[in-house]
Write a structure and sequence with these properties.
alpha/beta, 7-stranded mixed β-sheet, 9 strands, 291 residues, two-stranded antiparallel ribbon, globular
């Protein structure tokens, strides 16, 4: 018999989760129920009341449920066209602007960083972009996520080979293999890149966001939220951007609400936008460089 979800029992579970500090009401109801049904089926709970009782007596099950609600699948340079565009267009433009205004710090925020592959990918692209510059430039990337386990994984910086399938041999040799600590099929991110990236747990709706940043990656995060929550979050992200800063969303995500008036498209196909830009970068601008 398949488990069933009733409104009253669902509310009991939601309140139980909220007491542990996670506001699951920000998730789309259909997504929340699908994820909940997976755990109910796994524990052979026939209904919400049975599962609620299980949560009360088994703390480990709460951890399993939270993992399921915040599940993140990622890899280095996921959606390679996005990173190619950054390497060939955004990074050179950003660096030139920093040099012009005699500024040295380039800051990026990876909101919803999961286990860290995307944050490290951003750091690698930016580090490679400034490597041959004579100017003294500094990179700071902050990865945030709600999932404590994901943050712990990200800080460790150790990954399976499957996460590297989009990496060029040059990237692997420069930022992974050269500093390789071999744990069977695992590779570790180089100390050079680790030094540029910091990770912290952050609730995007309840805590102070990262401020004054040049680039925000918030990809495949909006899909979990309702339209009103997407509007609220995009407003927060826009306010965190410096003038001319870039916001990068997931391929299936769109601007909504105030963000539509605050941001201009740089590349609609790749969901890359810029705030109060002085110049719009066009698709294909710049010299091509592979990831």
């Amino acid at each position: 018999m398949e488990p069933s979800i009733d409104e009253c029992g669902l509310e009991m579970i939601i309140r139980k989760i909220e007491k542990h500090g996670f506001d699951c009401r920000q998730l789309r109801p259909s997504y929340l129920q699908r994820r909940l049904l997976i755990r109910m089926h796994a524990t052979r709970s026939r209904n919400c009341l049975e599962y609620w009782r299980l949560l009360n007596k088994d703390p480990e099950e709460y951890s399993r449920l939270l993992d399921k609600l915040t599940v993140n699948l990622t890899e280095f340079f996921r959606d390679t066209e996005v990173f190619k565009f950054i390497a060939n267009n955004l990074a050179p433009e950003l660096i030139s602007r920093k040099v012009k205004h005699k500024q040295s710090l380039i800051r990026a925020w990876n909101a919803g960083c999961a286990t860290g592959e995307e944050a490290y990918s951003i750091a690698m692209i930016l580090h490679r972009a400034i490597a041959h510059r004579s100017e003294r430039l500094t990179i700071s990337v902050t990865g945030t996520d709600l999932d404590q386990n994901a943050i712990a994984h990200a800080k460790l910086g150790r990954y399976e080979q499957r996460c590297l399938k989009q990496c060029s041999s040059e990237i692997v040799e420069r930022y992974l293999k050269r500093y390789l600590i071999d744990y069977g099929d695992y590779l570790e991110v180089s100390p050079v890149i680790k030094s540029l990236v910091k990770f912290k747990q952050l609730d995007l709706f309840a805590e102070e966001p990262i401020k004054m940043v040049d680039i925000i990656f918030c990809r495949n995060v909006m899909i979990y939220f309702s339209k009103s929550q997407q509007e609220r979050l995009q407003s927060v992200l826009c306010n965190s951007l410096l003038k001319n800063g870039y916001l990068i969303l997931g391929n299936s995500e769109r601007l909504v609400g105030e963000a539509v008036t605050l941001l201009e498209p740089v590349n609609m196909l790749l969901r890359i936008y810029q705030r109060s830009q002085e110049r719009i970068l066009r698709e294909g601008e710049g010299n091509e460089e592979p990831i």
